[in-house]
Specification:
globular; 253 residues; MobA-like_NTP_Trfase; Spore Coat Polysaccharide Biosynthesis Protein SpsA, Chain A; Phosphocholine cytidylyltransferase family protein; 25% strand; GlmU-like; alpha/beta; transferase
């Protein structure tokens, strides 16, 4: 099984913690953020690791990993970063943001899906926003689901009726990965020179969720792998301090 980890960005909201290391290499409980991910993956035999590097790339080193460079990381966003590894985007595979920690149970939920494309969605998302002022709920990539299928996903989705938060981990079968690549190619052809791609963003600055919504508009089915906790995002110093206090024991469950 393959995992593709998007790890090109700096993570400026972690302030001095990323002055000398990429965001995913920031320490939590004596280990890097990325190390928790790798442990969860390896528990389920996910050993074919592909890492997209950008900021301080030479300081992000994982034994046995295949690296993909995003030299334009200051000027693009998650979607473009992912497709710097386009040759590796074949399923079955997992794709994850690099600033999240999650337990092996979360990986198991993703792998157990029957969907060709499944977004891991936390139904208890609201608990991680209690007292979280530097990263408010308006920045959550919430997911609206109808009939078992994702209809909308992203920061523009309001809390009313949302199933939960897309945590930044998704599963793609061989067919799902092909649909992802084909949708990206279609979007690139149509929107690369356009002012707007999705949700007020250009194609160059698009989020992965913007491509998901484009795929849904094209009639592609995207499902969910629901979870109830077992993960945390580390986007700000406040997040880092909170996870330092609460995460270490949970990470081995």
């Amino acid at each position: 099984m393959k995992a593709v980890i998007i790890a090109a960005g700096r993570g400026s909201r972690l302030e001095h913690h990323t002055d000398e290391r990429p965001k995913c290499m920031v320490r939590v409980g004596g280990r890097s953020i990325l190390d928790y991910q790798l442990e969860a993956y390896r528990t389920h035999g996910v050993e074919d690791l592909h890492i997209i590097r950008g900021y301080l790339a030479d300081r992000l080193v994982v034994d046995g990993a295949t690296y993909h460079a995003n030299p334009d990381w200051p000027d693009n966003n998650i979607l473009q970063s992912l497709f710097c590894a386009e040759e590796a985007l074949s399923g079955p595979m997992l794709v994850s943001y690099s600033d999240i920690v999650f337990t092996p149970k979360v990986v198991k939920a993703a792998l157990n899906t029957e969907h060709d494309i499944a977004l891991v969605v936390d139904r208890q998302w609201h608990t991680s926003y209690e007292g979280r002022t530097d990263h408010p709920v308006e920045q959550a990539e919430l997911t609206l689901v109808e009939g078992g299928q994702v209809r909308r996903v992203g920061k523009h989705v309001g809390t009313e009726g949302a199933l939960g938060e897309f945590i930044g981990l998704a599963y793609f079968s061989e067919r799902g990965a092909r649909e992802l690549r084909e949708a990206f190619a279609a979007a690139r052809q149509q929107f690369a020179l356009s002012d707007i791609f999705q949700n007020g963003r250009t194609f160059q600055k698009a989020y992965l969720c913007d491509l998901f919504e484009f795929m849904i508009q094209r009639g592609i089915t995207i499902g969910t792998a629901p979870i109830d906790g077992g993960w945390r995002e580390i986007d700000t110093v406040e997040d880092l301090q909170a996870v330092e206090k609460s995460w270490t024991g949970e990470a081995t469950s």
